[in-house]
């Protein structure tokens, strides 16, 4: 199965109302072919899909190790959708190819789209998901604070951590900082 097929399969299994419309929006928004970052981790076509699946895999491992504290369908929803905002919005991609004026390939293969107004991707993920499906309060909170103390939202999150948000944060950090890193010393960390 391709990353796209795996993601669609997992999302459909949640049987959440509106999930088919969300999947269509993800296809039209090019979620399945988007990169995951400009240069830091999985800066390649399908990078966002691969990262989302990696996060689900590690979120499940953590949940299993810690005694199945949260329902699997919530893990699927928050893991696969936490970076949904990185596909962009308003028919504009979040990342565009970073081509130098000389026409040569840049060291950083993608850059943030200058034609898309900046909204933190945690917030955009929630907005885009909730156009189509209902997120529970716990799921919405976990997606909003998935970057933990690495986010501009860190002071709002500190001291209010939930089990689901911690599992998502730890799984996301482990994947982006350990599993998906090939080269050290890269600059962009999202
Ligand atoms: Fe993220
Ligand atoms: Fe992520």
Description:
The protein has helices spanning 3-13, 19-28, 47-65, 72-81, 121-130, 137-144, 154-157, 163-179; strands at 95-99, 105-112. Helix 1 packs across helix 3. By secondary structure, it is mostly helical. The chain has a single domain (3-179), classed as Hypothetical protein af1432, CATH 1.10.3210. The longest helix is centred in the first third of the chain and has 19 residues, at 47-65. One fe (ii) ion (FE2) binds next to helix 3 and helix 8.
| Estimated radius of gyration | 16 Å
Bound ligands:
fe (ii) ion
What string, H for helix and E for strand, traces the elements in order? HHHHEEHHHH
- The CATH architecture assignment turns out to be Orthogonal Bundle
Total tally of structural domains: 1
The first-to-last residue Cα distance is 27 Å
User: Structural class of the secondary structure composition?
Assistant: mainly alpha
Low-confidence stretches: none
Strand order of the largest sheet: 1-2
Q: Taking all residues together, what is the mean pLDDT? A: 93
Major β-sheet profile:
2 strands, antiparallel
Task: Based on Cα principal axes, name the global outline.
Answer: globular
CATH class: Mainly Alpha
Helix content: 40-55%
CATH domain topology: Hypothetical protein af1432
Residue share in β-strands: 5-15%
By DSSP, the count of extended strands is 2
